[in-house]
Design brief:
Layout (H helix, E strand, L loop, with lengths): L1 H15 L3 H20 L3 H12 L3 H18 L2 H11 L5 H18 L4 H14 L5 H11 L10 H6 L5 H4 L16 H19 L11 H8 L7 H7 L7 H6 L2 H22 L5 H16 L2 H11 L4 H19 L2 H11 L6 H13 L5 H19 L5 H21 L8 H8 L7 H5 L3 H17 L1
Helix pairs in contact: 2-3, 2-18, 3-18, 4-7, 4-16, 4-17, 4-18, 4-23, 5-7, 6-7, 6-8, 6-11, 7-8, 7-23, 11-25, 13-17, 15-16, 19-20, 19-21, 20-21, 20-22, 21-22, 22-25
């Protein structure tokens, strides 16, 4: 029954779901129209707000692009290829591939949500080695496994709450930081984490599409490529001159690259020694670059690997500004704050977690960044929760604020399953060489989205 229902949702999305770029254009017009109707903003006010936000995600977009490129360059190295070959010996059926990818992906994304790139590469390579894997469904599994990041070390809202002099403290909404033992270390988050690691991978096995002719990656690639691609080493060798030259010696120098790699490695060790296990985008990108330098051995091989890894990131480069423009409309017209205030005004001591959850989920469609969204809705929602808890002991109010913040985070994270924005993280790797669009994947995520939403609302409200 679930399999048939999942296929029906997939058929509907195939017919109705536009590309992620068209989705962004439509969402821009919808958000602008709501700002004019609901806030009373003039057309030019909306246009100015759109422009003011248009470039706000440039740094974030560049970080995402570098995460994708540097992570992919590691994954296409011979060393990683041999490791995946060994893993494939223990994963022999499509269902085992789906389950394995879900487990590994959820664990990796608990460390950092940028590590979904590693999951994507692993999944793609397993799809090439195991017959019968339905590739769009596998892409959906990779994207679903990414949802665990909200419970892990890179969950931006809990980290922000534990940052000294954060904007909520400066605004007088919080009197002090909220330590991560009350958010990431709470019983609510631990139960949510177990749910992602155990029950969601098992759930996915009941949703596997039963198709007589699944879309296999190897078939799609063989139909679009008639010649086998050179290895990185073979392409590097093809650039050598027929005679000895200093330029070739430098381009293929293992010593030069090793020295730079050791420099970077020394910084990484020193960084974690001083800061503990503090992961952010910049240190992750740096780690990926240094690992890539070391495992590709020579400058020319690394250059070729990076060139190949950069071939499919156009979606990230030109679509992020449009989503930033939508965020700009929400922020600069005051629409985001007004929606948060409206939802917070009807919340009670029993329902505030649920309203916080829905606020996070709804706002994510227009502000697909947890940190950016929390900057808009956090003051209104947490301010309302503090008023609801007035007169209660301070420790109890702090717990209420923690629960509300995590509810926003869970709602924001889950609604990504219905928002194609972050599929741009996965597609540069898994979409190479195949015709794959958001509509081919999103239908498989509807049932997981609905089931997870019911579970998460129950947990944030009653646990």
């Amino acid at each position: 029954m679930l399999t048939k229902l999942g296929q029906r949702f997939t058929d509907v999305f195939t017919k109705l779901m536009p590309s992620s770029f068209v989705f962004a254009l439509l969402l821009t017009l919808i958000t602008g129209s709501i700002a004019m109707i609901f806030i009373g903003s003039g057309p030019m006010d909306v246009v100015r707000a759109w422009y003011d936000g248009f470039f706000d995600l440039l740094a974030f977009g560049m970080q995402i692009a570098l995460i994708v490129i540097t992570g992919h360059s590691i994954a296409i190295s011979p060393m990683v290829g041999r490791l995946i070959d060994k893993l494939a010996q223990f994963v022999g059926t499509p269902k085992q591939v789906y389950f394995f990818v879900m487990i590994v992906g959820s664990l990796l994304c608990l460390v950092s949500f940028g590590w979904v790139i590693i999951t994507a590469v692993l999944a793609r390579e397993l799809a090439l080695r195991v017959k019968g894997v339905h590739y769009p469904f596998l892409v959906a599994c990779v994207y679903l496994s990414w949802s665990s990041w909200v419970c892990g070390l890179s969950s931006s809202i809990p980290l922000l709450l534990n940052t000294k002099k954060n904007f909520l403290i400066e605004a007088g909404i919080l009197s002090n930081v909220i330590e991560t033992n009350l958010t990431l270390g709470s019983s609510l988050n631990i139960v949510m984490l177990v749910f992602f690691l155990v029950l969601v991978p098992l759930m996915i096995l009941f949703l596997v599409p039963r198709l007589q002719q699944p879309m296999e990656l190897s078939n799609e690639l063989s139909s679009s490529k008639n010649t086998k691609e050179q290895s990185i080493k073979e392409e590097a060798d093809s650039y050598k001159l027929p005679f000895r030259a200093l330029s070739d010696s430098l381009n293929n120098s293992q010593v030069l690259q090793l020295l730079i790699g050791l420099m970077g490695l020394s910084y990484i060790i020193n960084y974690f020694y001083k800061n503990g296990f503090d992961l952010n985008f910049n240190i992750m990108i740096f780690i990926f670059i240094i690992i890539g330098l070391l495992i590709h051995k020579t400058p020319l091989r690394y250059t070729i690997a990076m060139k190949r890894s950069s071939s499919n990131i156009s979606g990230i480069l030109f679509q992020y500004p449009f989503y930033a423009g939508i965020m700009g409309i929400m922020i600069h017209t005051g629409l985001g704050s007004r929606i948060a205030e409206l939802m917070a005004s009807v919340a009670t001591i029993d329902t505030y977690p649920m309203f916080s959850y829905f606020t996070g989920g709804l706002m994510n469609f227009a502000i697909p960044s947890a940190g950016g969204e929390f900057a808009v809705v956090g003051p209104s929602v947490l301010g309302a929760v503090a008023e609801i808890g007035a007169g209660l002991p301070e420790a109890e109010v702090t717990q209420m604020l923690s629960r509300a913040a995590m509810s926003i985070a869970y709602g924001e994270s889950l609604s990504n399953l219905m928002q194609p924005f972050f599929l741009l993280l996965v597609f540069p790797v898994m979409g190479q060489g195949v015709k794959l669009q958001a509509r081919d994947v999103m239908g498989y995520l509807v049932i997981p989205f609905l089931l997870l939403m019911v579970v998460q609302i129950s947990l944030v409200t009653y646990l």
